[in-house]
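Technical appendix A lists one of the benchmark inputs used to test multi-chain prediction within the project. The record comprises two sequence entries:
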Amino acid sequence: MKFAVVVFPGSNCDIDAYKAIEDVLRQPVEYVWQDETDLERFDAVFIPGGFSYGDYLRTGAIARFTPVMEAVRHHAEAGKPVIGVCNGFQILLEAGLLPGAMRHNNLLQFRCEMVSLSVEANDTPFTRDYQVGQTIRIPIAHGEGNYFADDATIARLKVNRQIVFRYAGYNPNGSVENIAGICNERRNVVGMMPHPERAVHDWLGSSDGRGMFTSLMSELEVSMHG
Amino acid sequence: MYMAKVRVMLKASVLDPQGSAVFKALHSIGYEDVADVRIGKYMEIQLDGTDEQAVRDRIESMCQQLLANTVIESYTYEVEASR
């Protein structure tokens, strides 16, 4: 199984994502530069965090027009798994692969800390190995993670059970409905502000993020052999 | 040559954390008459063209595609001939 980690100018969690895939799954993983037009050779795509294009104009606004994002769209339309973490989530929103938009955190602080998340859906390729209702600890590090969608969109997210993670206990950024992560209707594209790739060993403060990677592995095994 | 002046604002229904911080700061330094502050973006875009309507159409599509995120923002613009 082969994993792509997409790199833009200003990405800074690409190495963490690469190492997490390598460490947890021991599967081949490759960095893919933003000019790549073909992701056919990959089973799953990871869009990492950072400050692509300096967050100029809006987070993710410029990165979404890169050639690789067209390839990511094809990959997603083929039903293959895509995950965007932090800036990766912001890019997926700007690209329209996930609904909604990001605002500045409500208290205008950059929040960098461990948070508790409640798992709201485990029928995505990235959350199979969790239980619905389970609380996991994953760190956040963002200034613009205040998720917004209009009432009609929120209602649709609820009906389709597209809310994948909620902040549990307290909401660090003002996000509507305490939303920390969502998926598309088809459930193969997931975006989240917290960083599972930074929570794959106890010595990192938490190993609760490993489940995102092991889930993907079991998903891919099922789709290959099932 | 034309000059387009584009303003992008958060929609009225979307909370503006920067605006509220500046609002509170203005109050704290004595401007208690300030009733509200909203912060947006202002852009000046120079572009080639001879037909004002065609230029307006270009600016409109730039706003839709890139300059504003219409999920949370609205935009207005003026276009004037420049040299």
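The radius of gyration of chain A is 16 Å. Chain A touches chain B through 19 residues (CB under 8 Å). Comparable benchmark entries are summarised in Table A2.
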